[in-house]
Hints:
It is a single chain. By secondary structure, this protein is mainly α. It has one domain (13-238, 255-341, 348-465). The chain contains 23 helices and no strands. It has helices spanning 13-28, 32-49, 54-64, 69-86, 89-99, 105-120, 124-139, 148-155, 157-162, 170-175, 183-189, 201-221, 260-279, 282-286, 289-304, 307-317, 322-340, 349-359, 363-380, 384-401, 406-418, 429-435, 439-465. Helix 3 runs antiparallel to helix 17 (322-340), helix 4 packs parallel to helix 15 (289-304) and helix 6 runs antiparallel to helix 7 (124-139). The longest helix is centred in the C-terminal third of the chain and has 27 residues, at 439-465.
Amino acid sequence: MTAxxxxxxxxxxxxxIAQALARWTEKWFPDAYVVALAGVVxxxxxxxxxxxxxxxVVDSFGNxxxxxxxxxxxxxxxxxxxxxxxxxxPVARLIDRLADLPQSARxxxxxxxxxxxxxxxxxxxxxxxFGGLLARAIxxxxxxxxxxxxxxxxxxxxxxxxxxxxMSSSAAQLQATASSLPPALLQITGVLDxxxxxxxxxxxxMCAIIIALTVVIAHxxxxxxxxxxxxxxxxxxxxxxxxxxxxxxxxxxxxxYSRILPILAGLLTxxxxxxxxxxxxxxxxxxxxxGYLLVFLMLGLVLHGTPRKFLQAVxxxxxxxxxxxxxxxxxxxxxxxxxKAEGRGGNTISEHLAEFFTxxxxxxxxxVVIAVYTVILGVFxxxxxxKWLVEAPYVMQSAxxxxxxxxxxxxxxxxxxxxxxxxxxxxxxxxxAVLKLRARDLxxxxxxxxxxxxxxxxxLVWLLGMTFDFVPPVVPAxx
Length: 479
């Protein structure tokens, strides 16, 4: 693999600031796991300062560490299933056809941005790999000279703009799945299906506006003429052949190379899905995180054709799930200390934070402050679902106190949560591996998007939030 070389082009304005920020981040910003560890320590110290006893703090830490085991696996499976589907032969052929459609360099960049965002509404893991492979396919065309850095940044827009407003939104999926919610949070929020979060007209309008804005910025920020840096200019080979599955070597491997079992498993999944749709409300079915993952996993198996090809794709996808698997237990521990370690007067840190946000008041000011807080915290804690578990107890309690619609509060978090991804390169890593680029090659373009997105997002959460009525949480009865 050939490493990409840095552009010697002189940068100005926002691009120069973005490149400086990228260099600083690469040099000084610690790994996300270290940030999560530091977060646990900070929360524990805060609990001691709040008057909690050492035994209360350590019990909360240890007892809460595995509270999110199911949700951790589910979020890892979002990444894995997206990767497996994106690398399947039918999707590869689709990507090749799509890569031939753009007729100009700037159109190619905006085209990749639009498709990556559209796919991210189904699965953000799929969006990352799909967008990266599409960018590579376009960069490999001999009849079109297009900036490879801009293509790569456009491929990241699914995760940098609207992923959390789609069906793989960690916060929305968690709130719709009672079995995945920590008991303390379930008592505050109840279950919120997609009809109260991502499928509200306000959320869909916000999503459409952000997509349009992103496409326009991607189009007009794409370099032209001599400023273009192609993949060849960056010494990146975009024509690598996919890894071939070794031929069958013994009779016992026959089923591993046969399409029979994947087809049968696919038919079983299709039958189950039809049964669910006929027996339950559509919103209940599409809000099921386990059902969503089942469909995507079996889709990946069917698209790859044979168990052997599927398992090879899985083995390539597993490294991308490592950060989730080791970080989410730490977020669970943080949430447990925040909500269970009582201090002076019997109050927890979560209750104090809820009082603070409640003091801000309702309406637009609450929505804007929550969005800004989410953006700032997201720069240091790059995890949509994990961070929601830390924020949700006090944010949702304060939303109830000021009579802010709880479903919309989830969406405020969701739309704001995507913004830090445009600055912190943590979630770029799988995409960068596909593109063979470094974070600094993309951040100049993503930071420009951030500068436009931030004021628009704050305006939208304020204006659209005023169209909601408050609905008290409905907590399901204990079995």
